[in-house]
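Take a sample.
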Amino acid sequence: MQFDLSTEQKLLKEAARTLFQRQCPASRVRELIETEDAFDAALWKKYSDQGWTGLILPETYEGLELGVVDLAVLMEEMGRACVPGPFLSTVCAGVLLYDLAENDLAGSLLKNVAAGQARPSVALHESAPSWNLRSVGMELERGAGSIRLDGKKTLVGGGASAGQTILCVVRDETELAVALIPASRDGVQVRVTPSIDRTRPLGEVVFENVVVKEDDIIGRGGSVESALARMFQLGSVILCADMVGGMQWMMEAAVEYAKTREQFGRPIGAYQMVQMQCADMLLMLESARSATYYAAWALNERDPAAERAVSMAKAYCSDVCREVGHRSIQVHGGIGFTWEHDLHLYYKRAKASELMFGDATFHREQLAESLLDAWQRWRISVLMIYRRELGIGLAIALRDGAKIAVGAKTVMLHLELSATIHTAVEAINNAGGEGLGCSTDIHSEEVVANAFEQTVSCLDAIDILVSNASAGPSHRHGGDADEALRLHAWRQWSRNLSLLQVLSAALGQTGDPHILNNAPPLDLEPRRFSGHVAYSIAKYALASD
């Protein structure tokens, strides 16, 4: 891959920045977010005149046929200028249409998208929004020679702009399908949904006894699943690019403010703590940029590692874009919280982007599943130990047949703790694994030892030990240390920790388990803690492959 932009890509970047500075300054952004759809027809015509609405579409459909990296370059500049409007949702709909373009209706609409004359949106989410396709429940009702549709789609990108054409993801009997439905059709209602990011409005689409023609169904089955997967990956990558542009602006604004704002007779940028904040922002920004452009390149080249690269980029960008916003507000102080300052526009966009196309936890779980699918070992035994009830997590990315023991050792037993362990074990069993639960009182070392030793014996052997201890051999030895040396160091280190000491004898009978010292905050809620555990185990799986 190239480690720098090409001459053409640099020219595209410069042209986009110049256009947004002239046509969409902060004052114009504020005007547009007060409208229902944040849409500027004159600005959209500029996009179509430049060919941006069809930038990655092939020439067959009157597109420029450029690559994903080129689109990422454009999206980064859009994020830097906080450009409002339905560009992101339209691009995603265009990609979905292209993959289903064998249908004549999809092909004709795709030409209008490239020409800037149509702004379709994909309607995927329902009452319980999820980026997992298994969550799609709306069904086409076939009977008496007609097809009808009832239900509601939420969080539709483009807000009121989605009213032109809706690509509705539904189920046709047992298969996924995409129905192309104009918003003007009888029974369709489109409403704008209030959201934190007013630069990219979201809509709610209600279908009440809507007649669907057979020709409206532009794809079904495996072709739809693969098309939606590609749309999801492309949307994630270009959204990461948008976040990189936003981070760039927030960092630059913080640095400039630190240079000019004086406190105690000197610029605040002269103080080390402010310098550290700015340095951290730069580190997170450049790391996010590298991950994003690698993912864009991998996706464009159809590299086998593209799926993993996309999840890595989105997981990282979701976390650091929010964190850069935090730090920029810290540097700005009180002015950063005011409506008059533009920083809140970028921060709200960062918060919305964090969740769009899946948050960091979702993508870590996707990454873990991807890694474990390539792992040759079908059954593994895992023992997870935690100190308090809020630290209980579930390694949800394990393959079917995995044996998992969820253990907790607390100052005193709680009904809440027992219920949490029961819930985790039940989820493991429902997923096709074998779950065991164990909770003990820290005051009785004999009871603790007996309980955990019995748990270990039920697993036969431990392949992985996951502990949320805040230190361990990984802190004393590098990651390249020999496994036997790490196990020995862990045993030596654990002599002074009653939590882990009780396992020393049992571990001696199970071979050489891999030790994962997983240390997220102990008060992290179980839903988010599971992603940390799954990701750690996935890293072990990759190393063992």
The longest strand covers residues 146-157. The chain has a mean pLDDT of 79. DSSP finds 18 helices and 15 strands in the chain. The CA atoms of residues 79 and 243 lie 6 Å apart.
